[in-house]
Amino acid sequence: MTLNKPQHRCFTFLLLLPLLLQFYSVKSDLQLNYYAQSCPNAEQIVKQQVIKLYNKHGNTAISWLRNLFHDCMVKSCDASLLLRTINGIESEQESDRSFGMRNFKYVNTIKEALEKECPMTVSCADIVALSARDGVVMLGGPRIEMRTGRKDSKQSYLPEVEKTIPNHNDSTQSVLSRFRSIGIDTEGTVALLGAHSVGRVHCVNLVHRLYPTVDPTLDPDHAEYLKRRCPTPDPDPKAVLYSRNDLQTPMILDNNYYNNLLKHKGLLLVDQQLTSDPSTSPFVEKMAADNGYFHDQFARAILLLSENNPLTEDQGEIRKDCRYVNGD
């Protein structure tokens, strides 16, 4: 039997339909205002706590954003990152890739406020997502409408962390490949790296660009400034020696990151290489020229990241304490 073009397209669609339904069934388990009935004030409580913690400890906003990245890149957006080492569980926080992460204790501050309002209702995985959403706003970034309904993992994935979280000196193509594996394209990856617009870089992660000789892709004057911040090629990892990613607006999520890259002032090799790779450099230039475009692409990529393989329904649990599996 020979099919004409419309029939052929219909036949192809029918073959793909089961796969499409499977894909969208996973996504549909997450929804806007998931807690509208079970805990109507849930998202407002998270927002209030994020604002309160930001006013007391401004750097928490950056922590919420980094938590989302480190949690969702590893297997699933399931709060596995938050688990402590106990009873056979090895915490993902012990990985070298988690170096410099902090403020985990304040996740439980948010969780405790939610438990008072609605016991055993809001997952730690959703707290990770919602706190990142509200933290981005506190940093001057875009408002992102996030779906909720995630469940919490009962296990940790420490061995997977180094396989999935890019390192500071990875090649651009390696980084793109890792993000592509969870459905984020080149444009989205360049936008996500714009999160380096805020926060700081510890000297231990950038001295290889300063010593024994200065990386030729680094602006010489900026290199001299960095040497004053990081005066030794072998810094103590525990010492608080660091430089701000963005000296102009260090606590604002904006496109200064891309302008700095074009001026050869990127701190990490993984950042600066975006300007020399032909697949990423056009996006760097476009984001450097248009902060609104950067925010749009950043919001799109964060949304994709936040919905990476979520646990839903009976695939996980609602932890009472974000640090431990229920019963531990």
Based on the model shown, name its key terms.
328 residues, mainly alpha, Peroxidase, domain 1, Peroxidase, domain 2, 2 domains, two-stranded antiparallel ribbon
Question: What do you see in this structure?
Answer:
The chain is mainly alpha-helical. The protein has 2 domains: 134 residues, Orthogonal Bundle (Peroxidase, domain 1), CATH 1.10.520; 131 residues, Peroxidase, domain 2, CATH 1.10.420.10. Helix content is 46%, strand content 2%. It contains 13 helices and 2 strands; from the N terminus they run ααααααααβαβαααα. A two-stranded antiparallel sheet has the order 1-2. Helix 12 packs across helix 13. The longest helix is centred in the N-terminal third of the chain and has 24 residues. About 3% of the residues have low confidence.
